[in-house]
What we know:
This protein is of the alpha/beta class. The chain contains 14 helices and 16 strands.
Amino acid sequence: MSDGSLLLTGHGRLLTPRPFDGPDPWAILVRDGLFAWIGPLTDAPAADSTVDLGAALVTPGLVDAHTHPAFAGERSDEAAARIEGAPYSGGGILRTVAATRAASDDELRSLIGARLRASLASGVTTIECKSGYGLATDEEIRSLRLIGEAAAGLPIRVVRTFLGAHAVPPEAASAAEYAAVVAEEMIPAVTAAGSAEFCDVFCDRGFFSPADAERILRAAATAGLGVRMHADQLARTGATELAIRLGAVSADHLEQLDDGGVAALAASGVVATLLPGPALVMRDRLPPARALLDAGVTVALASDANAGTFGAWAAMPLVIGLGATLLGMTVAEAVGAATAGGAAALGLTGRRGVIGVGADADLVAWDAEHEGAFALNLGAVRPSRTWIGGHEVSG
Length: 395
Ligand SMILES: [Zn+2]
């Protein structure tokens, strides 16, 4: 594979994610793994090679800023039971914890790798991956290590998040007691192993209280981890306000967010990461995407692919379509939320999710000519060609 410069050209829709407003045909110069120049083809600098993308829709590589890939086992029976009226208790997470603890390193690494490959084949070039199905220090460290090992053999870029506070393990006496273990034992072990960039907490009714979440996330911030939160999904607990107070990079879910929460987010720099997949599967309230956008909040769309509430690992094209059809976003806004928005949710603004000079040269040409295909074809839009760091990858 050559490391020489590459000129990508086309005459179709180019979303950077803003629609490119120069004359057609356009050209993008890639050099040393970065976007080096963007403009009309007639002004393009010379390059070692050229690829013409024709009329294809071109976007930045998608950024999926919220996933849970480190698990074994199968819980599709729970989805059927919920549809027949069984309530969601979250107890199902512990089923996955038992199956994950029982899986060998090879099994778990292979499962994670398959999920990362499916994401990559759907146009995702950066993916956030959480632990959280181990719920014991050695098991959480193992999950983070295996995410890293699975990613090492693949071109997709992975950001790891420690989610020891995903549920209370069966051996713990209480959420508060387990939260203390997460804060005082797990976080030092995770940072010593250098195996995560972020810490997340499932702060919600029946899981971790705002007080437990604050204890954990303050310890994480002190240890140098970035902070993000599962917030206001099942109940309006005030988790969003806690995320703001703690300087979280992102508050995720927000199905139960009210006007006060929207205003609080708008006054903060916290990204709202919305997850229409599980909201749809759970037949839950939808997050107030339109109100958040109208208030000026940076919105990300992510899959939340996980073991029990949304199991699709190639779903980001569908998630963009759901943003437009269910959440009241324009399709261009939804594409922006799945690219630049996702990058913002990972603290990577300007580096990922954007076709701009100096950003990582991660780009997808789609089997479509207009972003409207994400709304029209609901999940059936697929990449035709993908580049990561200026290298073409095969799905
Ligand atoms: Zn989640």
